[in-house]
Amino acid sequence: MEYIPDTLYGVARQLQRSKQLMPIVLVKLYIYQICRALGYTHSMGICHRDIKPQNLLLNPTTHVVKICDFGSAKMLQKNEPNVSYICSRYYRAPELIFGATDYSTAIDVWSLGCVFGELLLGSPLFPGESGVDQLVEIIKVLGTPTRDQIEAMNPNYTEFQFPQIQAHPWSKVFRSRTPPEAIDLIAKMLEYDPIKRIKPLEAAAHPFFDELRQDPSISPLVLPQNVPPPVLFDFTWQELKSVDVATRDILVPKHARTATNWPDVVGAEAGGGGGGPPPVDAPADSEQRE
After folding, report:
1. CB-facing half-sphere around the CA of 225: CA atoms within 13 A
2. Domain of 142: which CATH number?
3. Residues tagged active-site
4. Which of 43, 138, 164, 289 has a 20 to 30 A CA-CA distance from 277?
């Protein structure tokens, strides 16, 4: 793996010290790449279990993001218990706080939603000082979970005595200039019910990222210092086979389709009815640090 000089945490801290917010185009670029990386690892049943800014390598020149530190990662197996005391506190999914041991890769999506919110706010979204306080911070925003939501997070949890707090509108959590598409996507990532949380590649197909998919010959993506964007659409069949056709059609814009990421290109060029699936190779945005 090539040397990557910084982390998302380091870059975000520099902006925080200078009292600046990250440009929204960079938020899109970074969160998109993490969605893609998680889509790939989740397609193989691997849960990272410690997504946080410190574990997201970032090259601030090329804007390439890679997930690192797979020391807590695990291939989740059905009916096999897992430790619930996992994941750094600010980014810990509520089912883990409720003590669930039969959780899913959806805990990574919650963590990513917290990272996403942090980039928009310039500070942690749920800055709890303990496990219990972490839940309090979440409830302040999402409101008190219902009995059904608690059961969805951990069916073995029986203590339902929580103060009844109404959900705080997401639009009031973030600054007034925050794009509504960003707020909509965060709300889909930060659902109490793990099953209702958006999947990583579904998230990558969200309208919030449409700017990244525009044809560069018509509307080029403008980044700071006018650097070209990293490669974003070199999908593999391992990634694409996990989503439906409509989502696939969004993920790979027509201008970016090749014989590798879009098998029908092979058939079209040969005058046939479509090619086979592209080879299964790990995408550049999901690598394990040695």
Report:
1. 6
2. 1.10.510.10
3. 50
4. 289
